[in-house]
Design a protein that fits this description.
The chain is of the alpha/beta class. Helix content is 35%, strand content 15%. It is built from 12 helices and 13 strands. Helix 1 packs antiparallel against helix 8 and helix 2 crosses helix 8. The mean pLDDT is 97.
Amino acid sequence: MIPLMQVHKPKNIGSVLQKVWDSGFVTEGDYSDEFERKFGDYIGNPHVSLVNSCTSALWMASHMCGIEKGDEVITTAMTCMATNVPFVNMGAKLVFADTEPTTGNIDFKSIESKINKKTKAIVVVHWGGQPCKIDKIVKLGIKHGIKIVEDAAHALRARYNKKLIGNHGDYVCFSFQAVKHLTTGDGGAIACKSRADLERIKKLRWFGLDRHYKSPPGQAPASRWEQDIKEAGYKLHMNNMNAAIGIEQMKYIDGIIDKHIENALYYDKHLSNPLIELLDRDPKAEPSFWIYSILVNGNKQRFKDYLEKNGIASDVVHVRNDEYSCFQNFKDDTLKGLKTFSERLLHLPVGWWVSDKDKKHIVNVVNDYK
């Protein structure tokens, strides 16, 4: 079976972790500081803070946006539930914008139509690693004084208008979960625009304390525990163990993403079956193809079973959020693009583990489906 997902496992991770463990410094420290710098360099934004998951990054973004009970957040239902749970837990009302039926990304016109005085943030997802129309969305946010939050869990090294994702919206959240392009076992990062926001986030991720605190000039040296906490924070930091894995994984990251892109472009060129539709590609977008989405015409389960019989794993990966009971109060039955996309959605294996032989087999099997 050609798997849909795989965890990238460098052979020397065990020795890397043993070194950290033997040092006795296993929580946030030198390794997390180094990984933070390296990741910031990689996305071209030095204003990066590591956290323990992308969900925590989104929680932090909701805090930074000042979300309070009764505020409205325009978002997408076509995503992992982790995108929207933090905003609900902050007391926000989710306002689901429609989905582009041929890309899976949030529909710009639908966003625009739902803005009102209660709108506090716009949350977008770059579906499968193909960036949404982020430039237009950012301009819309500036026009109305609304913060833009990007869930970039799928989109490491993707670009829009030649600019790397991580440099557009106010808060951009990345995932290092097990099967993402870059994995630390679990973990995440939040990128922001200003030094002031970064300093605040770094305090908030560790109770509100500055881990690098030093007494003001002229005062006696004091422990960092003796500093004043001006804003109550959380415990969301990444530890040295996960960070050490991240540092090691970064040695391979370009090769990993290059292979995802190579396989996806091969599918784009060679898949040809009237029962299977490929997603539209935005000419301004350079996707990183964490997953490869297709749209199935007809009986999706029949096609899925057919793939399995031919040794190819497939799945929907994410379910439209308004099908979960915890989001039922926000359901909008008028979202036709969302309905069309979600009912037809399926994914094919596309990652670094898919060999040239595998991808040719996948194309032949899909093209022979009747």
